[in-house]
Protein: Glycosyl transferase
Organism: Actinoplanes sandaracinus
Amino acid sequence: MERVRWKRADLWVLLGFVVMAVWVTSRLWLDPNGRVLAGNDDDHGIFLFMLAHAERVVFDGASLLYENRFNVPVGVNMMANTSILALAIPLAPITHFFGGGVTVVLLITFGLGGTAFAWYWVLSRHLGRTRLAAGIGAAFCGFGPAMISHANGHVNFVSNYVLPFIVWQVLRLREPGRVVRGGVILGLLIVLQIFINEEALLFVAMTLGIFAVSYALMARDEARRVWKHFTAGLAVAAATSGVLTAYPLWIQFMGKGSYHGQPFEPSKIVTDLASLPAFARLSLAGITKVTEVLSLSETEDNTFYGPFGLLMIVVSIMMLWRSPAMRATAIAGIAMLVVSMGPELRLVGVKTDVPLPFALIAHLPVIDLVSVTRFAMVPSMVAGVLLAFAIDRIGSYPTKTRKRFWIGMTLALVPLFPLPLPVVSGAPQPEFLTKGIWRQYVPEGRTLVTVPLPDVTSGRTGQRWAALNNLDYATPRGYFMGPANARKGDNTGSWSAAPRYTSRMFRTLGDTGNMPMLTEENLEKIRKDFRYWRTAVVVLVPKTKHGNKMRTVLVSALGKPQLVGGVEIWQVPSEG
């Protein structure tokens, strides 16, 4: 096996990527457990939960694929969620000793810098690009607008450092003698990626499929020579990964807490054509009000190349078009870009009647689980690869052309330089939690319930507190993916537990301030729900919106509270 030697230039590149990653996450590093990402505090909270689950697996021997201290009494299917087990399990000691907030910012930082360096390694070591070309192309892959956007809470979508090696191993299967060894290596990488982010694996598989078909049509002689051992290697990879992940995937799609579809119409979240030459909100040249028209949220700025960035991508394609491999790469990237635009073209926020090919595959299994605009993450990676190859190629052009090229690259890349992720302070934990006073009130088998109830958007604080305590106490509901209402036969995907009277009431009260009718019948419904959740103690989150009205409801249902450890609490007697 050939030894790959590090050189000083590689270390400088690595250091540069680390510095850029720390720059982007710097505001969160200042207080990882006290701050949350302003662009998407909901997803920040869900990954805190994933990390708390992993900590319980390692330190408490909890079930790997199910969590029973969240969404009590039903629990959560962890395989049916973005549980990042391949990352969360090894980092469980950091979560245990330093807190989940530290692990989140560490993973985002390593995700950005690690993805960039992985692409640099593959481009420079295995695809023969110069270090300069590989560094610039890899920087676009790791720190482009799509990656910076998803760094607002999507830990799984910035952790893409396995994908370049999957791509490389697929390309190597065309070499003779690699059917078994290459197939097994590829299969193991696929397994690793499944436990990081299955969605990204799907994107790469689709892209490589388009690439392979396109390349085979353009290089038929080579395709005839390699197709047998290439497909045999893929079969070995499929068998390897299939055997190792059969049971977890069965749990994901068929086990308790599994679901189908999304809580929204995936094809409505699409890439706007006008976003291609625009700037993302966290780019140096970004204008938030413009970006808001062209993108769903801070975490979905998946294109946004800027006018000169888009121009240089097109120039790179033109420079490389004579190469069948580069042509197939460009075709694959463009195809995925078109797929990301959904069934009908959207332009400057307006849905047009122009049909697009995605309508043909929109309702296929697995595809219906994907937010469509995320397919555009692939073109961003493809663009980085194309830029790297174009930078290498420009060296053979006349001096005047080289100067124009580098002026264009400067105008393309400087405005895309990423800004630090915005953060806000999270609600501080009361002494009732930090000093462990809650243990006196919550026996094993019972729950601690925060009001507002842990839920997507409305109950961020309760979920964050439970996760920062590594689920030492059990809690009902929460933000996670599961069936909308399995008891009533509705297994459509939902972001939270099945609704109950009390959860709907507190959510409406928090959103609108409208008090419910406090009849004895309704108060008994509240008490019944608390018994269903096995509640030992209810904690009112201080300074919460419409908190005084929530207190009135709790007093009417449960009596007068106690002031303990900086919070008001209500003890709930057991049914027995």
User: Anything to note?
Assistant: The longest strand covers residues 479-485.
